[in-house]
Specification:
heterodimer; A: 264 residues; mainly alpha; 12 helices; B: 326 residues; 6-stranded mixed β-sheet; 4-stranded antiparallel β-sheet; 14 strands; 37% helix
């Protein structure tokens, strides 16, 4: 147990070293979100009518932030599945290191990468006119929420990565899960245009509550959900926090258990 | 003293449908090399994975350095080195990065990890490539780095799972040299291979496994004897064949076999038969083009033990590939 922390840090450091050796990783992790910022801002932004002061981009940025951190699920899963396939996880497991260090270290590494990605995106957002109006404290809190959401999701990614056989499968599964989740939400368009059943789904969708929470924290008026009096619409911060804790309570023990027995 | 003992290991996959190990037992004497020889799917990787604490058997018992691998895997991990048939290292990092990282994970401390990494890179002739990502390494270099990573804490007991599979002849020769040096240093080694020649070269003792069971075991010589004794072979000019055949038949007491100009027959005491034959040929004024004793190859051993040749590949169950194979 004495070495538990140093084991975790060594594994985390490995991912940072990868960034240093292959800086393209950072470029590829940020290029898609930045592209989304530009596409939505300039392609759809013109035609999506918004009475939001400051324009559609104010509503859009929280959506893209949440969507981007949601992809942590897939990137964690892909990274882990690749390590498994290459036998690196076997090697780690044959070392006298503390149980769980390998996967905890990976979630830390992915979380650090998320910070970098969020910084790049915030800059891109700034460049196209996004301005949070709530002051430094609330804005920081919003980023803390985003960071934690990504971290919670990366634990689902760990379980997925340990459960599938091919990194490529993870990639398609990741997209299959994250695309509907991010689009069946209030991230890019109001949910009021959706069929009734989807509206309910979108309302309780953690992506929606996260987007609403961020919008609120960035200083926007909270106009969320078709049924504005529902619990997640009224308390997006609390609901999001609840989701994050719930995800971690479920997936951290499940993942660690799976890691310990995954080949026996 | 036995450094490694496996007793009655059973391991099945897919709810018992695929039997990987079927009551497999083996042991390795301290300071010696046991070659576990068998075709794909025979259970070699599964055996190594159980001994290296990566896999739990369904039943059976195994100890490494006297420690139960199922009850105390952590203690076993401190004592062993494991190198698989693929290079299990981080390919985006450099060789140096990898070795330092593994040193840290063995809790060596920062400077000792760096020193050990440099020392191993030097020893395995990788100093020049130390700062390059593993991606750029050749197959042989990767394998050497992988082996180096398993030697960081100077383990007394080493498991090498098909260390030369997929290497070209040059890479294989290099790897053999490296392994032989290690063995001279006194490690106990369990090595799996599908190459008969490799087991013959490196192992003190060989366990032949097939379908999850040890079907024969002994030194290379003993195994060859088990298959049959030596054969006397002489090659002569065409016109000498009838006389030479008669001589070989007389001395060996067996029927001879003729292949082009080469006459052969099984003999009981090879060296005596060889001298007698030479003498008889000399008296008959026949000068053999070639003469010698031929012992059966391990290929012959495998064929006679299993009824099929070693290269006849039985596909491994997919489930197993996931954790253990490429």
């Amino acid at each position: 147990m004495k070495y538990a922390i140093s084991d975790v840090l060594t594994i985390t450091k490995r991912q940072l070293l990868q960034l240093a050796r292959v800086p393209e990783i950072l470029v590829f992790s940020t290029i898609q979100p930045v592209m989304f910022v530009l596409l939505f801002r300039f392609v759809f932004g013109g035609s999506i009518a918004s009475d939001q002061p400051g324009g559609y981009v104010q509503l859009l940025m929280p959506g893209i932030f949440v969507q981007t951190v949601a992809f942590t699920l897939a990137s964690t899963a892909i990274g882990l599945a690749e390590d498994m396939k290459k036998g690196l996880i076997d090697r780690f497991r044959s070392l006298p290191i503390s149980r769980g260090a390998v996967i905890i270290g990976r979630t830390f590494g992915d979380a650090l990468l998320n910070i970098l990605v969020l910084v790049v995106m915030a800059l891109a957002g700034f460049a196209v006119g996004w301005r949070p109006t709530s002051g430094i404290l609330q804005t920081t809190l919003a980023f803390l929420f985003l960071f934690m959401f990504g971290y919670a999701l990366s634990w689902i990614g760990i379980l997925v990565g340990l459960s599938v056989k091919e990194a490529r499968t993870v990639q398609s599964v990741g997209f299959l899960v994250t695309f509907p989740l991010t689009f069946l939400s209030n991230a890019f368009a109001p949910t009021t245009g959706m069929p009734r059943a989807l509206q309910y789904f979108a309302e309780w969708n953690p992506v929606s509550t996260m987007v609403a929470a961020c919008r609120q924290l960035f200083g926007l008026e909270n106009r969320f959900g078709a049924t504005a009096d529902s619990w997640p619409s009224q308390y997006p911060l609390e609901t999001s926090l609840f989701y994050m804790v719930l995800l971690m309570v479920i997936f951290i023990p499940l993942s660690i258990r799976k890691y310990k027995n995954f080949s026996s | 003293m036995k450094s490694v003992i496996a007793e009655h290991l059973v391991k099945t996959y897919s709810k018992g449908e695929v039997v990987a190990l079927n009551d497999l037992s083996l042991d390795v004497e301290e300071g010696t090399v046991l070659g576990v020889l068998g075709p794909n799917g025979a259970g070699k990787t599964t055996t190594v994975r159980i001994l290296a604490t990566l896999l739990k058997p369904d039943s059976g018992h195994a100890t490494v350095a006297g420690i139960d691998v199922i009850k105390h895997p952590d203690k076993v991990r401190e004592l062993i080195g494991l190198s698989g048939q693929y290079a299990a290292v981080d390919e985006t990092l450099t060789g140096w990065d990898n070795l330092v990282m593994f040193g840290r994970l063995y809790h060596l401390g920062r400077q000792p990890s760096i020193d050990r990494a440099n020392e191993l890179l030097e020893r395995f002739d990788l100093t020049e490539a130390a700062r390059r990502p593993i991606k750029t390494y050749s197959g042989g270099m990767r394998r050497r780095l992988d082996l180096a990573a398993s030697l960081i804490v100077k383990p007394k007991i080493l498991f090498l799972d098909e260390p030369t599979t997929g290497l070209d002849p040059r890479g294989r020769q290099d790897m053999w040299g490296v392994i032989q040096d290690l063995v001279k240093g006194g490690v106990t080694l369990l090595l799996t291979t599908q190459y008969l020649e490799e087991a013959d070269q490196l192992a003190d003792e060989i366990a032949v496994i097939d379908h999850g069971k040890v079907i024969a075991r002994g030194t290379s010589d003993a195994l060859k004897k088990q298959v049959g004794g030596e054969r006397l072979e002489i090659t002569v000019e065409n016109e000498d064949i009838p006389v030479a055949q008669e001589i070989v038949a007389r001395i060996s007491g067996n029927t001879t076999h003729l292949d082009l100009r080469t006459i052969s027959a099984p003999v009981l005491t090879g060296s005596v038969a060889l001298m007698d034959t030479l003498r008889a040929l000399d008296e008959a004024k026949i000068h053999p083009l070639d003469i010698g004793l031929k012992r059966p190859s391990l290929d012959d051993v495998f064929l006679s033990l299993t009824g099929h040749v070693a290269e006849e590949i039985v596909e491994e169950p997919i489930k197993k590939k996931r954790g253990g194979k490429k």
